């Protein structure tokens, strides 16, 4: 597979930071050779990191290591030019040769060195650390010169010593995508996100990738660490979580809106993945908020 390759750091810069404001985040599944720290200040959707997929909303913060595939895919309404919706984020890129790597071998940088190593699996940052790092990232947008590097090191150190972090991908995950392949996974993600409400056959997605059904099944599982049917089910369940938080639709309506064709199957798959029935989830969410 050949995800879009990206390198945004000029040769004369140690790192770059960008503020992103657009109708939707970059919708191309990709990886690059730089470390990345990203926070979504505004926007909702589904986040793909390596073999992991989950919903994201405002405040989502993730650090990814070099060549770890990722995508923040906004919900479909963000692609409607009449929706008035907007996304806002801040992203920092720094190279795998940051400060020539030499300083990270020193004892004083041991925590940051460990952080960079762990980022190969993706790191989600939450809680108090998330709020503090978000504030520091906003400040860094206005800082220049040597002070900007010092500021970035403060951010990395704060994450490195925090207990508000969790690894995202499975320990066994390896990026096996090859330059010589086409952007198959990107096409699959795009097709599924547009059509998960309808019946999707294995042949349809296999045809998109110009593969037989059996070859596609092997290909997808080797890249996503799960079968295509499990992936599709999770996309639908993730959408159900969002709809259940709004009481304007009943459970039966949500079932069909998410692409399930029988209420019993929806209840079964929802409980298998969440440990609760859709009704129990809705009641718990309503009570909590």
Automatic annotation (TrEMBL):
Keywords: DNA-binding, Transcription, Transcription regulation. Gene3D superfamilies: Homeodomain-like, Jelly Rolls. The keyword Transcription applies. PROSITE patterns: HTH_ARAC_FAMILY_2 (PS01124). SUPFAM superfamilies: Homeodomain-like, RmlC-like cupins. Residues 186-284 form the HTH araC/xylS-type domain. It comes from the Bacteria. GO terms for molecular function: DNA-binding transcription factor activity; sequence-specific DNA binding. The keyword Coiled coil does not apply. Pfam families: HTH_18. InterPro entries: Homeodomain-like_sf, HTH_AraC, RmlC-like_jellyroll, RmlC_Cupin_sf. PANTHER family: ARAC-FAMILY TRANSCRIPTIONAL REGULATOR, HTH-TYPE TRANSCRIPTIONAL REGULATOR EXSA. This is AraC-type DNA-binding protein. It comes from Algoriphagus zhangzhouensis.
């Amino acid at each position: 597979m050949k995800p879009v390759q990206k390198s945004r750091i000029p040769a004369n810069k140690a790192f770059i930071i960008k503020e992103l404001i657009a109708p939707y985040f970059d919708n191309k599944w990709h990886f690059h050779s730089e470390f990345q720290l990203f926070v979504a200040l505004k926007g909702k959707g589904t986040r793909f990191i390596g073999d992991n997929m989950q919903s994201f909303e405002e405040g989502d913060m993730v650090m990814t290591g070099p060549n770890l595939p990722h995508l923040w895919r906004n919900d479909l309404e963000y692609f409607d030019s009449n929706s008035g919706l907007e996304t806002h984020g801040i992203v920092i890129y720094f190279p795998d040769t940051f400060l020539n790597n030499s300083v990270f071998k020193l004892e004083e940088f041991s925590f940051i060195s460990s952080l960079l190593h762990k980022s190969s699996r993706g790191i989600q940052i939450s809680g108090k650390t998330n709020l503090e790092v978000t504030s520091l990232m906003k400040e860094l947008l206005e800082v220049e010169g040597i002070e900007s590097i010092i500021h970035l090191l403060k951010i990395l150190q704060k994450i490195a010593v925090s207990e508000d972090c969790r690894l995202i991908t499975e320990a066994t995950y390896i990026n096996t995508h090859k330059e010589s392949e086409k952007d198959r996974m990107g096409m699959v993600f795009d097709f599924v996100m547009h059509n998960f409400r309808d019946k999707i056959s294995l042949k349809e997605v296999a045809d998109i990738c110009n593969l037989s059904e059996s070859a596609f099944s092997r290909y997808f599982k080797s890249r996503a660490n799960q079968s295509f049917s499990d992936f599709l089910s999770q996309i639908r369940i993730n959408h159900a979580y969002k709809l259940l938080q709004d009481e304007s639709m009943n459970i039966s309506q949500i079932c069909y809106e998410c692409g399930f064709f029988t209420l019993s199957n929806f209840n079964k798959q929802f409980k298998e993945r969440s440990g609760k029935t859709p009704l129990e989830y809705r009641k718990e969410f309503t009570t909590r908020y």
